[in-house]
Design a protein that fits this description.
Shape: globular
Largest sheet: 4 strands, antiparallel
Strand order of the largest sheet: 2-3-1-4
Number of strands: 4
Mean pLDDT: 86
Structural class: alpha+beta
Length: 135
């Protein structure tokens, strides 16, 4: 095989392999934007109780069943760098996304949300909520 044919053969093989890999990769669906954000921070009555924290996390996760909640993220304090602007005094957070303000308003009176409050409010000492809409 002469040098030109060998080079053409190798380049064709590389192109074919790259095309095969690219076609096998999953294509991510277009991200939906949910412009209304509801972020709640919970301070536990017993902050050292991992059992109470686990119960609250489980309770918050039930809120994902609410029809108008389009996305739910539940978190606990991360061990990040201590800085003046970082507040790590809370125990559990929920981050929710809604399509519109009406969806967020109906979430407040949804039976699942009311049941969560009834079943879990004894676990927290304080809650702060930040609601925002995309600018």
């Amino acid at each position: 095989m002469n040098s030109l044919n060998r080079k053409t053969f190798l380049l064709s093989g590389v192109a074919l392999a790259a095309g095969t890999v690219a076609s096998a990769m999953p294509v991510a669906p277009a991200q939906k934007k949910y412009p209304v954000v509801h972020h709640a921070f919970f301070w536990l009555k017993n902050p050292s109780s991992m059992e109470d924290r686990a119960k609250l996390v489980a309770g918050v996760k039930t809120l994902a069943k609410i029809k108008t909640v389009k996305e739910l993220r539940v978190g606990v304090v991360a061990s990040t760098e201590k800085r003046d602007v970082v507040d790590n005094s809370w125990g559990v957070s929920e981050l929710m996304f809604f399509e519109d303000l009406e969806g967020q308003a109906s979430y407040q009176t949804d039976p699942i949300h009311l049941e969560f409050i009834k079943n879990c409010s004894h676990l927290w000492d304080k809650v702060i909520v930040y609601d925002a809409i995309e600018a």
